Amino acid sequence: MVAPISKTQLTVLSFLLALALVLVLGSAQYGFVSAMDRKLLGLKKEKFSHFRFYLHDINSGQSPTAMMIIQPPANKSKSEFGSVSTIGDPLTEGPELSSKLLGKAQGFYGLASQDEVALLMAMNFHIVQGKYNGSTITILGRNQVLDKVREMPVIGGSGLFRFARGYAHLSTHKFDPSNRDSVVEYNIYLLHY
Ligand SMILES: *[C@@H]1O[C@H](CO)[C@@H](O)[C@H](O)[C@H]1NC(C)=O
Ligand SMILES: *[C@@H]1O[C@H](CO)[C@@H](O)[C@H](O)[C@H]1NC(C)=O
Question: Measuring from atom 1 of ligand 2, which residue has the nearest CA?
Answer without folding.
Answer: 133
